[in-house]
Every structure is written in C-alpha cells, then in structure tokens.
Design brief:
Strand content of chain A: under 5%
Helix content of chain A: 55-70%
Radius of gyration of chain B: 36 Å
Distance between the termini of chain B: 122 Å
Number of helices of chain A: 3
Helix content of chain B: over 70%
Number of helices of chain B: 23
Oligomer: heterodimer
Number of strands of chain B: 3
Number of strands of chain A: 1
Chain lengths: 83, 596
C-alpha cells in the first residue's frame, strides 16, 4: 500500500508539485489574513509571511555556510584516519 | 521510608546477571520481561514522592532513591525506552549484548534516583563502563578503537566530576545532590559542570558522540542515543537550572550539530550530530532556568528519547538489512523497505517539530521560554536550528536513503527489505508514542516537574501552528531548490576528535621514536661503559675468591678431594691389578733400599 501511494505521487510529479505550491501560497495567505499576531514578542513577527522567508533563508544559509565551512578542509577522504 | 521500594536498576542488574545463565528457549521471554518489570517498578512509584533506599556508608548517608516529579519523568521514559530497545534487539542471540545494555540503563536510572554525589558518581561510571561494550560488540577494528576513545573521554569527564565533588565536599562538607548554587559559582561548580556537559556532548567536549554512536552495534546505538546525554540533561536540570553560560553553549550546540549534519555522509553519524543539536535545546533551556524552560527541557528530553530512538532504529534497520549506512551507497529503497521508511519519516517529522508530532509540543516550550525570558537571540537561533533539523532529519535522511539516486550495489539491493518482525514492532511502538504525545498533550504535560505551568501552556495556537508550518515548509522549498548542493559526498568530516586522535598518535610516535631511541642509547652505553667493566671486575674477584681465599681458608677439603681423585685412579677395584701395583710399589721400595 505504501509503495502504491508513493508511486501514485511519483507518476504525477508535476501535479503534485503544483498542489504543494498552491498549499504554500494558501498558508502564507492564511497567516497574513487570519492569524492573530497579538501575543508575539518582537515586531518582525508581525510581518505577514515573516516565518516563511525566515524558513527559506535559514535553509539556504545553513546549506551554504556549512558547505563553505566543510570545504575549508573539514571534509576529507574517508581513509584519513587509517594507518 | 516505610513503604517497600524497589530500585528499577536492581531489577535490570539482576536480569543482566541471570540472562546469560538461562537456556536459549526462555531467553526471549526474559528479554522482554525484565525491562517490563523495571517499568512497572517505576509506575509503582508514581505519586509516592519521597526519599527511599538510604544506606549508611562510613560517615555518610547514601541515598539511592530520591523520588520526585523531575526524577519520575526521566525514569518513566528511560524504562519505557528500555522496553522498546530490548524488543528491537530481541533477535540478537548474544546474551552479553542485552546484559551490557541493561547495565547501562541501570546506570542511568541510578543517576536519576540518586540523592548524593557519591552514588551519582558510582552510577555515572557504571554507565560509561557498560555502554562501551555496546560499541565493542560490533567487533570491527574501528569500533574497538572508537570504544577505547569513548572510554578515555568519559573517564576524563568522570575525573573532572570527581575532582569537583571532592572540592565541593571539602568546601561545604555536603555530599547531597541538588541545586548547586549557580548564583555564586566556585571552581568546583565549574568542574562538576564540565563533567556533566561532557556527557551532554557540549562542544568542545562532544566529539566522542558521533565517533562512538556511528560505530556502535545496531541495537547498541538505539540504547546509547537515549541515555547518556539525557541523563546529563537530568543532572543539569536538577543542579544547574539558571546557569546562564548554558544558554550560549546550548545555542552553539544546536547550530553545531546542524552544520555537521549537512556535511555528513553516514546516516547514523548524521543522527548522532543531530543529538548534539537537540540536546542543545535542552541545555539552553536549563540555562534559561524558568519553570517553563525546565518543563521544556524535560518534555524535550522525553520526546527526544522516543523520536531519536525511532530514527536510530530506522537507520539501524537499513544497516542491519543492507550492511551499509552511507548515503553514497544507498538510495531508492522505498520499494524494498517501505515500512521502515514510514517509521523513519515519523521520527523525522517528530524531531522537526511538525504539528501533531511529539517535537512540536516539547521544542515549542523551550523556544517560548527563551522569548518570554526576553532572550531573543537564543529564541531566533534555536528556531534557525529547527529549520536545519527538518532539512536533515526530516528531508535529507529519508530522501537519500529511500528516494534520490539509487547508489545501491547489486548486493545491497538484494539484501534490502523490511527488518525482522520484532524490530518493526519496536519501531511501531515508538512511532505510535511520537504521534500520541503530539496529539494528546496532557499525557506528557501532567508528568512535568511544574505541571501547573505546563497546563497553562498551549502549543496549538494559530500563531504557533502558522509559524511552524511556514518555517518547515519553506525549508523544504529550499531543500528541493538546493538539492544538488546537498548530494552526499564520500568523505568524512574532521571534528575536534582530531586533536585526541592525532594527539594519541603523536604520543605514540614520541614514545616509539625519540623516547625509545634515547632508551636504546642509554641501554647501549650502560652495556659498554657499565656492564662490561663490571662483569670483568666481578669475574676477577670471583677468580680471586676461588683460587686465593678458598685455597688459603678452606682449601683443605679441596686438596683432600684432589688427592682422593688421584688415589681413585690407583684404586681401580680390580684385585689382580691392586696386588700387582702393591708388589710393584714394594719392589720399588726394596730396590731403592738395596741401592741406598
């Protein structure tokens, strides 16, 4: 059953991606229009869709910074510690 | 004191001793029974707060059973995890592996219930010495070395703790284990803290964790990921609540683990780095120290034990079935191991704090406590780390094992499949609890040390759900856009264990080359300049003693013996020859007399 569900979505990859993008847009719209911002602690949290931007930027920053750090010499061959 | 009280560690330790003696046929029942009994012993303690198991020892009172809300929540989840872990390892025939795991859990529970530093230290060391076997039992050359490093690091940590508690005892005359007084930290405060945070894997004392957990046995890693670091969180929460330095340390941990997880190619090492990241939240929460934060630390430890156990069980199943755990040797396994995929995904969604999963109701408490304490930097950076958590454990692990490019060798592909039934049952139990905690919050919240504070906290507000979903789903967008950057590379990442790995080699080289050369040279010189003349002198004196002193002092015996030797040649024992000799001597004497 699990395999069938996965293959169902894989066979309709483009449609799946489109549905996901619509869902993302709906989420931001819901946040902007209906979610109360009364109890937030900082002013940035009042900006509609702030956390969406935060999530995306966080992801990009983490990947780029980590890879940059890794290529400074931290990433090395697998047999580095072998005698 | 009057009520009967059974220490759950005692049950596990007795079980650990008996198990290898049992016939194989009944072992399986016993493997489930013992942890269940320990769990029941904990359940019986609920609502019976107090001090039990007080043993006088020399001039101290050792306290083995301090039961309160804080110890109960940890004891509950640890014994429960012991049940799940034992079921997961049910197929393991080697009894010693189960015994080691139970002894290890007994060590953790001993720490959870102890009321004084001496008992704490005893069980603390028991934990280190029993868990190392879970690494060694994998029986690879690398695991042997890893285990030794693990043991050395933990022994060093234990010594820091010992030094701290001895200094503290000298300064205060008090051995009781409780809030240490963070407002006025002394040298011993820092030493004890260093001992504790080494077990919590706080950088720079963290490198033992991915090193050992990546090399442990499949079932051993499931146990290890649950106990050492969470026991450390417990002792920190009990004694160091409000220690401010723990906030930046915890935030660094949360981010450190995430950065290394990007670079990691081995699934289990990636999960190990994520333990550092997750324990970072708990350490930061202890540093914040408010009731909400301590609740958050406990809740997150509780949820973490389950979802991290589940993730290690999932990736362990992949390793158990295929024999590999590196992303560069896996991929596209959804057809072969679909159930394992779903369980691992549930673990991934829980750790990432998706609504309706366990991490959502626990992690949120810590972040909220950070914001409420006006520690905005901590709040935002921990939120940043949670994006990273989803990126790796929620997306990278499932994607590169079950989807992505199929890097499997023919052999890996053929061996792949869902694991034995007992492993699936254990994963299903953990997965169920992950979702149950996420959906029904009172189950966890009522157990926390400050239940009234927890009851007022509601994670399911529209603001919080919207915030979390935005962060996570847009992280997913970033993941798919930068998928190429994340493609695993066949490499390892250098970490701070470099210093003691290479330091060990340097020590070995110094011992082998310069020290041994000097030793050889001194030995040689002694031979030539010392031994040879000495031997010559000795030989001379020996000769002098024999021929000089002896001849003069007690030479008589030797002279008589020499004469006897000469006479013996004459006295051959033959009668005719004796008569002839005698006759010859007489003839000679007569001849001489005739001439003279």
């Amino acid at each position: 059953m699990i395999v069938n569900i996965i293959e169902f979505f894989r066979a309709r990859l483009k449609a799946t991606i489109r549905v996901c993008l619509v869902a993302l847009a709906a989420l931001v719209a819901w946040d902007a229009l209906f979610v109360s911002k009364e109890h937030v602690h900082t002013f940035v949290e009042r900006i509609p869709g702030f956390w969406a931007v935060f999530g995306f930027v966080a992801c990009v920053v983490i990947i780029i910074v980590s890879k940059w750090f890794g290529h400074l010499g931290i990433m090395t061959r697998e047999d580095y510690y072998d005698d | 004191m009057t009520e009967p009280w059974i220490h759950p560690s005692a049950i596990l330790l007795i079980g650990a001793v008996i198990l290898p003696l049992l016939p194989r046929a009944v072992r399986r029942i016993f493997i489930v029974l013992v942890p269940v009994l320990a769990f029941c012993a904990v359940l019986l303690m609920q609502g019976h707060n107090g001090v039990y198991g007080v043993v006088p020892f020399m001039k101290w009172q050792l306290i083995f059973g301090k039961v309160d809300e804080l110890s109960m929540v940890f004891a509950y989840i640890m014994t429960l995890m012991c049940v799940i872990g034992s079921i997961y390892g049910l197929h393991v025939e080697e009894a010693a592996q189960h015994s080691a795991a139970w002894t290890y859990v007994a060590g953790s529970l001993g720490v959870i219930f102890c009321g004084d530093y001496l008992t704490l230290f005893l069980f603390w060391e028991l934990m280190a010495f029993s868990s190392v076997f879970l690494v060694w039992f994998r029986r690879r050359k690398e695991s042997l070395a890893s285990g030794y490093r693990y043991l050395l690091v933990h022994t060093a940590g234990g010594l820091l703790l010992l030094a701290g508690l001895v200094l503290r005892y000298r300064a205060t005359g008090d051995l009781s284990f409780g809030p240490i007084g963070v407002a006025d930290p002394q040298l011993y405060t820092y030493l004890i803290m260093a001992g504790f945070i080494l077990n919590a894997a706080v950088p720079p004392l963290h490198a033992w964790l991915p090193d050992a957990y990546g090399e442990a046995t499949v079932t051993g890693a499931v146990f290890m990921c649950a106990f050492t670091t969470k026991t450390a969180v417990y002792v920190l929460a009990r004694s160091f609540a409000g220690m401010e330095i723990l906030v930046p340390l915890g935030v660094c941990m949360a981010l450190y683990g995430v950065v290394y997880a990007v670079l990691e190619n081995d699934a289990r090492r990636l999960l190990a780095y994520h333990i550092i990241s997750q324990v970072g939240y708990m350490v930061a929460a202890v540093g914040i120290g408010t009731p909400l934060a301590i609740n958050g630390a406990c809740a997150h430890a509780f949820a973490h034990i389950l979802y991290k156990g589940l993730l290690f069980m999932g990736c362990g199943s992949v390793l158990h079935m295929t024999g590999v755990s590196k992303f560069t040797q896996l991929g596209g396994l959804y057809k072969k191991m679909p159930k394992t995929f779903v369980f691992t995904l549930i673990g991934g969604l829980s750790i990432s704090a998706f609504p309706l999963f366990s991490g959502f109701v626990s992690k949120a408490m810590i972040v909220a406590a950070g914001f409420e304490a006006h520690n905005y930097w901590a709040g935002f950076l921990l939120t940043l780390a949670s994006a990273g958590t989803f990126l790796h454990t929620g997306l990278k692990v499932p994607y590169f094992i079950w989807f992505g490019k199929n890097n499997c060798s023919q052999e890996t592909w053929e061996r792949a499949g869902d694991p034995p039934r007992n492993m699936q049952v254990a994963m299903a139990m953990a997965a169920f609890l992950c979702i149950f905690i996420g959906c029904y919050t009172p189950y966890l919240y009522d157990m926390l040390p400050f239940p009234s504070v927890a009851a007022q906290y509601d994670p399911y507000t529209a603001t919080h759900i919207s915030e979390t979903l935005q962060i996570l789903l847009f992280t997913a967008v970033g993941f798919f856009l930068l998928l190429k950057k994340l493609t695993p590379e066949p490499c390892i990442s250098l970490d701070l264990d470099w210093f003691y790995r290479m330091g060990g080699r340097l020590f070995y080289w110094v011992a082998r080359k310069p020290v041994q050369s000097v030793d050889n040279a001194v030995g040689e010189a002694w031979n030539r300049q010392g031994i040879v003349p000495l031997m010559r002198t000795a030989r001379f004196w020996s000769w002098f003693d024999w021929h000089g002193i002896d001849t003069v002092v007690d030479g008589t015996a030797r002279s008589v013996r020499a004469l006897g030797g000469v006479l013996r040649v004459v006295q051959s024992g033959s009668l005719q020859i004796n008569i002839i000799s005698m006759a010859a001597v007489v003839a000679l004497v007569l001849t001489l007399l005739a001439f003279v």
